[in-house]
Amino acid sequence: MNVRVFTSESEAAAACATLVSNAVREKPSLVLGLPTGRTPLNVYRELVALHQRGQLDFSRVTSFNLDEFLGLPPDDPGSFRAYMERHLFQHVNLSAERIHFLDGSAERAEQECARYDAQLAAAGGMDLLLLGIGPNGHVAFNEPDESLQALSHRARLSRETRQAVASFFGDDVSKVPLAALTLGMSALLQARRVILLAFGVGKAAAVTAMARGPITPRWPASFLQLHGNVEVWVDAEAGRGLDGSR
Ligand code: GLP
Question: How many CB atoms sit inside 10 A of residue 74's CB?
């Protein structure tokens, strides 16, 4: 696994936005996998700035978000769709028909997941996937378990994960949905290029286990060790468990 250690999160965010901008310039019809959470906020801010300076045209880009809370309609302020509208979609020229999202308010979760997998397959999979990592080693909402699921699916959120995302629900864990819809491991591992971003001492254990630990469903991010084109971008704090020699 290629690990890049940045002097700061903001330096990494600017570099990530430049990487996306270069990728879109090389392939204007890029298919982009997008995460949510606190980590990508600075990247989205940098992407918006590049777009506003006329240096990044999203008009032919296709986006797929990784996951969505179950039971929240897209216009619920707590939904990941609303998060993406606030932090990226409202500020750039992605076309509405090329923005793809799991619908957390879908009546039948299984059918919605199958629809999403088909949509991603029709788009040819992701060219570039930006990922975060949960403190318990989850990627998207693929949570630690006895086994993992290849395809998009309904995921029960662990207590740890619900606590980790509570900040988006006014720090009230009771308001965090109990489940989500998420891309499965196959979609993530089939992305042609992956940049995983993790910053701060709180992510050091998750990053070390991902990069140096056993490949196990108890740490879903560890399966990225099998991906041939993944880079792990960290600051010194998140990367402190990596000796950088492998
Ligand atoms: C949520 C999201 C993940 C994200 C994780 C870490 O679980 N489903 O996609 O990577 O949170 O978020 P943060 O960047 O806020 O630590």
Answer: 16
Integer angstrom CA distances of residue 122 from 31, 85, 109, 156, 209 = 11, 24, 20, 27, 34
pLDDT at 194: 98
CA of 187 to the centre of ligand 1 (A): 17
DSSP summary character for residue 110 = H
Q: 10 C-alpha vs ligand 1 centroid, how far in Å?
A: 18
Count helices and strands in the chain by DSSP H and E runs: 7, 10
Any atom of ligand 1 within 6 Å of the Cβ of 165: yes
Asked, for residue 79, whether it belongs to a domain, the answer is yes
> 106 in a domain, yes or no?
yes
Question: What domain range is 69 assigned to?
Answer: 2-235
pTM above 0.90, yes or no: yes
pLDDT of residue 244 exceeding 60, the answer is no
